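User: Some background: our group keeps a shared notebook of sequences we're curious about, and every so often someone picks one and asks for a predicted structure to add to the entry. Today it's my turn. The entry only has the sequence so far, pasted here. Could you supply the structure so I can complete it?
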Amino acid sequence: TTLFRSVDGIAVAAAERRALAAPIERAVAAGIPVTVFDSGVDTDKYMTFIATNNYEGGQKGARALAQLLNGEGKVGMVMHAPGSASTMDREHGFEDTIAKEFPKIRITARQYSMSDPSKAMAAVENMLTAQPDLNGLFASSEPSSIGAAQALKSRNAQGRVKLVAFDSSEQMIADMNKGVIQAMVVQDPFQMGFAAVKSIVDKWGGKTPARRIDLSARVITKADLSDPKVMDLLRLEI
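Assistant: Of course. Here's the predicted structure to add to the notebook entry:
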C-alpha cells in the first residue's frame, strides 16, 4: 500500500502469472493505471495489455518455411510445452496457415521440447530417424529452436532440412550465419517496453489507451544480419 502511494503508474512484465494478480488488482483499486506487457496475468483488472501477436508470428513462420520449401514437402513442429499460451498461439498460427494456404505441405511430426534444448534435440533426432525425407522444421520457442539446430548439426542435415526458429540468441545467430537456421521470427522487446510506458503517459494526458495492443513480430534471414538496425533488435532479444 505504501508503494502504491508513491507511484502514479505501473508497467509490469510478470514472471509468474498468478502471483501478481492480487497486487495488480489492489493497485487498480487504488486508482493507479497498470499496463501489463509481454506476459499475461490471471486478472483482467489492468488498464492495457501489450504483447506480441503470437498467432500472427506463427503465420509468418509458416509462410517463411513454405517459401523455403517452394510450397511443398513434409515438415515437423518442435513445440514448446502444453499450456504455454504464447507458444500455443504460435503453433496454432503455424498449423492453420499451413492447412489453409499450402495444401502441398504436410505436418508429419509434432513433439514438445518442454523448454529444454536437450529434449528438443532428441525430439528432432527422433523425427529424422523416423522420417529421413523430412524437408523442414518449425520451432516455436528459443529452447526448441536451439535444440532443433543442434540436432540438424549432429545428423549433418543442416541446409537440407530447412529450419524456421522463433526468438533469438547468440547461438541462434551463429547457427543462422552457418546456414543451420534459415529464418527467425523475432519479437521487438524495445517497442514493447516503449508502448507500455507510453500507454501510462497517455492515460495521464487524458487519453484512453487501447485495452489490448498487439505488436507484430518480424522474420529475419541471414541477409538481414548485415543491417545494423536488425542487429540492434537481435541484441535486445539476447
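Suggested note for the entry: The beta strands are 10-12, 34-37, 48-52, 73-79, 105-112, 136-139, 162-166, 183-186, 212-215, 218-221. DSSP finds nine helices and ten strands in the chain.
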